[in-house]
Predict the 3D structure of the following.
Amino acid sequence: MLELQGLRAGYGSIEAVHGIDLRVPQGQITAIIGPNGAGKSSTMLAIVGQVRTMGGSVRFQGEDITGLGPAERTRRGIAIAPEGRRIFADLTVRENLIVGGYLHTPAEAAAREEEVLQLFPRLRERAQQRAGSLSGGEQQMLAIGRALMARPQLLLVDELSLGLMPKVVDDIFAALLQLKAAGLTVLLVEQNIQRVLADADQVAVLTAGRLAYFGPADQAAAQTDLAKLLLS
Ligand SMILES: Nc1ncnc2c1ncn2[C@@H]1O[C@H](COP(=O)(O)OP(=O)(O)OP(=O)(O)O)[C@@H](O)[C@H]1O
Ligand SMILES: [Mg+2]
């Protein structure tokens, strides 16, 4: 579904991602893990067109999208819940969702909102609440919900569990598995290796802007010393 070929990306003249090849298969959960500063977020942002691509290509559903801007990529079916969540703190939960559904007619957006609220009932209870007053877990649900409002075929989530209680992380992973069962493709950045090995189909280990391992999650632990890679 998504294919990165020799992707290089960075900021100004500084390259942060030095040529990665990655295939994200349709209907699966692929997780990127790696130490701080490895280029995980830069890779995610290059996929959605928010960080400059300096070489290589991004292909989505068989088409080269390397030169497209962020809005066109959203239109084609890629949405992101970014690192730090970046919800609109002064808007209500409902207003944040409406912003995420801007591409749709009001009727489509309302139907989509209902699906999101079914997936995350906590958001329904807090629909009129200011988003900035939500707990960290609820904010993450809102960031994912807002991304889902675009009706993506590929959902990106950067730092899914950072700072969240295990129970909330369980709830969010359960929601992702439900979305996967409904056909969504997911690419996430996640620091919790146990979670990744349990719930992801494929794992990519990124160190210093390069791919150190990429393969099935159930073989990752046997084929590579993950702990050593993550400390490198
Ligand atoms: N806006 C920016 N301007 C310049 N350099 C940046 C910018 N954002 C990130 N970088 C640099 O790019 C490199 C990769 O950073 P990136 O945020 O992609 O890593 P990461 O793997 O997501 O790390 P973390 O685990 O801390 O989130 C780092 O050297 C970082 O300093
Ligand atoms: Mg990051």
